[in-house]
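Sequence only, no structure available. Ideas?
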Amino acid sequence: MMGLWFIGNTVRQNLLSTGAFEVSYAGTPIFSKLATGRMPTLADVVEGVGEAMAAGGATTQ
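Reply:
I predicted one. Tokens follow.
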């Protein structure tokens, strides 16, 4: 049990140290902190989802 906790913390720390923060919708990349160097705003996410839905032909009900 202790070993699993240690491994989980190590993996989590390595993921955090990369600075990666990626947002996707239905498998389509919406925002990448690695590409832009900043965290997304709500407007970034809403716009990205809208564009992904339009490109994929998805509709909302």
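Strands lie at 22-25, 28-32.
Hope that gets you unstuck.
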